Amino acid sequence: MRKNSIKNTRINAEVQKELADIIRSEIKDPRIAEFTSVTAVEVAPDLKTMKAWISVLGDQKALDDTMKGLKSAEGFARRELARRINLRNTPEITFIADDSISYGIEMSHKIDEVMEADKHGHI
Predict the structure, then answer these.
(1) Domains in the chain: how many in total?
(2) Where are the beta strands (DSSP E) in 1-123?
(3) What range does the domain containing 73 cover?
(4) Residue 74 resides in a domain
(5) In sequence order, what E strands does 73-119 have?
(6) CATH number at residue 21
(7) pLDDT digits (tens), the chain, 123 positions
(8) Which of 19, 20, 56, 95 is least crowded, fewest Cβ atoms below 10 Å from its Cβ?
(9) What is the crossing angle of helices 6-25 and 74-84, to 10°?
(10) Is residue 1 part of a domain?
(11) Is residue 58 included in any domain, yes or no?
């Protein structure tokens, strides 16, 4: 199976949807922030490993705590994925912190500041 095949794309989407649901409703670790989202999932073509990019709305401490909580709940999340999705292998999960949403918000604020300064003739 090629990395960008239709089958692999469908598996990525399904795993992302189920993993987000597992994190939101099944994992009870208090370290995991309430506004945690799975921004992307990439399952290896051999279905042995996967990378899950996680974004957290909040500060750096919330992100660090959430990543620690997810790391400790990795086995549970993998078991739940195996129960929900019928795959030949259930991939080993690697959680990766994704700061693209916070970066986008920060850039949006900077653009707003420049636009406001331009409107007042400060540029």
Answers:
(1) 1
(2) 36-43, 49-56, 92-97
(3) 6-119
(4) yes
(5) 92-97
(6) 3.30.300.20
(7) 455 688 889 999 999 999 999 999 999 999 999 889 999 999 998 889 999 999 988 888 999 999 999 999 999 999 999 999 988 888 999 999 988 777 888 899 999 999 988 887 766
(8) 20
(9) 120
(10) no
(11) yes
